[in-house]
Design goal:
Elements (H helix, E strand, L loop, with lengths): L7 E4 L3 H12 L8 E4 L3 H9 L3 E3 L2 H5 L5 E4 L6 H7 L8 E4 L6 H7 L4 E6 L9 E7 L5 H12 L2 E5 L2 H20 L19 H14 L40 H42 L8 H22 L11 H16 L1
Parallel strand pairs: 1-2, 1-4, 2-3, 4-5, 5-6, 7-8
Antiparallel strand pairs: 6-7
Helix pairs in contact: 9-10, 9-11, 10-11
Length: 355
């Protein structure tokens, strides 16, 4: 792959925006003189300065340099305000938005004079192993789409998709990550169907899956289907146990009354304890899901968005009292709040102890 022959400007040099600007230079796909970025935080710009990327504090100053392609890499909730301030400067340019959940219709409404392309990269673009879906807007030309694909191909692999396929990819991937992060141990199991491709083309889905798998953990996302029912603790049907482990012990020759008192009562008590542990384990699983869903919704909450904002507020009422225990001691890293992930790990540790 040769070097790109156009200039790229990145609005928002956060985790993803900084990875895009840095990756273009690191991969050799672009000279540092052809890449620029802006961010109000000077600390975010230091790593890019070291690579020779031109950096700016304000987007308006950067757009005065007349870039060919502008990548908008800001959070969805602040995107309308950010692009609204520079809408006139973006007129007539190719604008690529990576904001999750912001549709092409919304983007074209905010930037009626720009040629809009929507892209959905994943986090491994930071190590040049990303998988990016590219979706052109109604006014985007073939050259705009070609430039978007060329840009993100320098960071991994890029495929052109329809917007409904792009949204399906997001739902499918989120479902896989939720299930992979929150499933119990193998003997506990998680009943359900395999994650589907979300309506993506077979070749595209396979290519994306290969890219994502090579840069993520090797943990399997397929749920085991067999397990012992709650309360059963004799090892029958558990993974790794054969029929020999299910043989009943030879009973002692004791009077019936003593037998009931010495064997049935302890078995009944152990069974009840296991059932209680099972219920607690399921409740902790459900609470982990609520924490994860709140994290996902935090990227989609916009001012004035009724249903999503209400749902996010309701989840915050349930989740924040627990997560705030960790926010006191864990500062944000790279602009991200890691407290919810630590909270999930603590809950999983508790599950390991009681189940």
């Amino acid at each position: 792959m040769g070097k790109i022959n156009f200039t790229v400007a990145v609005i928002g040099a956060g985790a993803m925006g900084g990875a895009i600007a840095s990756g273009l230079v690191t991969s050799g796909a672009a000279d540092a003189l052809h890449v620029m970025a802006c961010n109000p935080s000077p600390q975010k710009l230091v790593p890019l300065d070291e690579k020779g990327v031109a950096t700016f504090a304000e987007a308006s100053q950067m757009l005065e340099q007349d870039p060919d392609v502008v990548v908008v890499a800001v959070k969805p909730q602040v995107l309308p305000a950010v692009v609204g301030e520079v809408a006139e400067q973006l007129a007539g340019r190719t604008v690529i938005s990576i904001a999750a959940g912001v549709s092409l219709q919304t983007l074209e409404g905010l930037l009626p004079k720009s040629r809009v392309v929507r892209a959905m990269p994943n986090l491994p673009v930071q190590v040049l192993s990303g998988a990016t879906a590219v979706c052109p807007g109604t006014t985007a030309s073939e050259e705009d789409v070609s430039r978007a694909v060329e840009l993100f191909s320098a960071l991994g692999v890029a495929k052109v998709m329809r917007e409904d396929q792009l949204d399906a990819r997001a739902r499918s991937w989120a479902a896989v990550r939720v299930r992979g992060a929150l499933r119990g141990r193998a003997r506990q199991g998680w009943r359900g169907a395999r994650p589907s491709c979300g309506g993506l083309p077979r070749d595209g889905a396979r290519d994306h899956a290969r890219r994502v798998s090579s840069s993520s953990s090797r943990a399997s996302t397929r749920a085991p289907t067999g397990r012992s029912p709650p309360g059963r603790h004799d090892g029958c049907g558990a993974e790794g146990h054969g029929p020999s482990s299910c043989r009943a012990p030879t009973p002692r020759r004791t009077p019936p009354s003593r037998a009931r008192a010495s064997s049935r009562t302890p078995s009944y008590s152990k069974g009840r304890l296991l059932q209680i542990a099972y219920v607690i384990n399921r409740l902790l699983n459900f609470y982990e899901i609520l924490i994860f869903v709140q994290c996902i919704l935090s990227w989609f909450v916009q001012s004035g968005n009724g249903f999503v904002a209400d749902l996010y507020g309701a989840l915050s009422t349930i989740v924040d009292p627990f997560v705030n225990l960790f926010r006191r001691f864990i500062p944000p890293v790279a602009g991200m709040d890691w407290s919810p992930f630590v909270a999930i790990l603590v809950l999983q540790l508790i599950q390991q102890l009681i189940w």
